[in-house]
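Pilot study result, target chain (344 residues):
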Amino acid sequence: MRYQKVIGRVLLLSAASIAFCASAQAQGNSIRGKVRNPGGQNVSRLIVHLETGNGSPINVVTTNNEGDFIFQGLAETSYTVVISSPEFEEVREHVDFVRSASPDSPGESRTLDIVLTPKGASRTPVPSNRTISGQTVPKEARDAMDRAVKLGRDNKEQEYVSALHEAVKAFPDYLEAHLMLAADLLKNNRLDDAISEFEVARKINPKDDRVYQGFGQVLMKQKKYALASQVFGEAVRLNPADATLPLLRASALIEHATAINPNTSKEASEERQKALTMAEQDLKRSIDIGGKSTGQAHLQLARLYEKRGDRRRAADELEAYLKVEPDAKNAQSIRDAIKTLRSQ
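Predicted structure:
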């Protein structure tokens, strides 16, 4: 389908995106990366360590003249890339794969774009990945956008969309307008059109996490849960401070695990457990970040623990949800569910 081709381009063309390159991954999963200094120059001859998810060393490589490195032939699903040098602050990038590589299944690839911080340097906020350097929105386009926002608040759907099209006509590279059009199309299940708008937005700014969030939501509607988790993962990498993004990835992983019948094979059972483990990590990360997503993260954790048969922890998470959302409309049904779980 066309959306799969578009998603493939998204993952392959973005310099820091996840890529699915089956021919290159035949011998296992791989991690590629590029290392730059704060000025954007590539850093060569820098030692890069690879560890397992629990911290055991696996391999060591050195960046080439272009600042690139690669680890290949990886069989497991959880790794940490570590860069430590006298001149720069230590970098630790956690990398997850959905499934283990096998002779019958092509491996996956992850790509890291690492910017080093000099030791002792004052830590200034990293410029937003949503910023487009040198872009100026014409007044006509801004006015149309202002009208669209007001019309959207007034629930005037047709006029809202028309105003957004006016904004795009006045300024074809208006990222916000394209994202808003894509979101409206997604809401109305016009998925092919939504994909087209998200693709335009990606070309304008391939580092905007909202683009990948949108593609992930399209894939969720298409029930492509494993791929959705990959795309949400890119959004997490681009905007690690947003608690909603790991929640979305966790939701995709839980759906992926739900679709797997663990009784068909040992590999299926292991893949299901790994997906649930990754989802659990994401949900805890979302809770740690905090914000409006906390309640939903507790609900998803309750769902996850119930799938594992851990009713006590599922009940604990539902109680945590009620503490965060004491006035929730479903509060009584949640209390009833807690009683049922406790009684079992």
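One observation from the pilot: Confidence is low (pLDDT under 50) at residues 1-5, 9-26. A full batch analysis is planned for the follow-on phase.
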